[in-house]
Amino acid sequence: MSEIAKLRQQIELELVAMRRGLSGLSCGDARHAFIRARMDRVGVCQDRLAHHLGENDATLVVCELYIQAMEEMERVAETV
After folding, report:
1. Quick one: CA dihedral 53, 7, 16, 29, positive or negative?
2. In 3-state terms, what secondary structure has residue 80?
3. 19-51 pLDDT tens trace
4. C-alpha–C-alpha distance, residues 20 and 78, integer Å
5. For residue 10, is pLDDT > 90?
6. What pLDDT is stored for residue 27 in this prediction?
7. Are 19 and 73 in contact (CB under 8 A)?
8. What is the pLDDT of residues 62-80, one digit of tens each?
9. Is the pTM for the entire model greater than 0.90?
10. pLDDT at residue 25, as a whole number
11. Could you give the C-alpha distances from 54 to 22, 26, 47, 63, 68, in angstroms and in order?
């Protein structure tokens, strides 16, 4: 697996964890800290991805993955 593919996968995992944190039972500071940690990790991966693709393309990749993760959250919420 290429470094770019690994970074995309890591970003997806962090966004899924973040999405689950948004819909989880925790609240307040714990929830905020959890989501913030995931976003920080996404940022680190984005920086590494920018090294390979350039900043604009790395930002596009992260935005696309974020949109996919949030759309999945909406689909799950609609079925509940």
Report:
1. negative
2. coil
3. 887 776 656 677 788 889 999 999 999 999 999
4. 15
5. yes
6. 62
7. yes
8. 999 999 998 887 787 677 6
9. no
10. 61
11. 30, 37, 9, 14, 21
Which residues, in sequence order, are CB contacts of 73 under 8 Å at separation 6+? 19, 22, 23
Which residue has tokens 């991966």?
45
Question: What is the Cα–Cα distance from 45 to 25, expressed in whole angstroms?
Answer: 27
Structure tokens at 43: 């940022």
- Rounded to the nearest 5 degrees, what angle is found at the Cα of 63, between the Cα atoms of 8 and 61? 40
Q: Which two tokens stand for residue 48?
A: 């590494």
Assess contact for 74 and 20: CB atoms under 8 A.
Answer: no
Q: What is the pLDDT at residue 24?
A: 65
Write the burial class of residue 25 (CB in 10 Å: 0-12 exposed, 13-18 middle, 19+ buried).
exposed
The tokens of 68 are what?
Answer: 């996919």
